Amino acid sequence: MHKPENQELHPDREHIDIEAGFERSDIKITGIIVFLASLGIFVAVTGVLCFGIGKVINARMNREDGPNNKWTQTVNIRQLGNMPNNPEMQNKVAELTQSFPTPRVQTDDGNQDVAELHARENLLLDNYTWADAGHTRVRIPVERAMELLARNGIQVAPAVQLPTPMTGDERPTVHAPLTSGFAPTAYEQEAARSAAAEARQREESK
Question: Residue range 93-122: average pLDDT?
Answer without folding.
Answer: 77
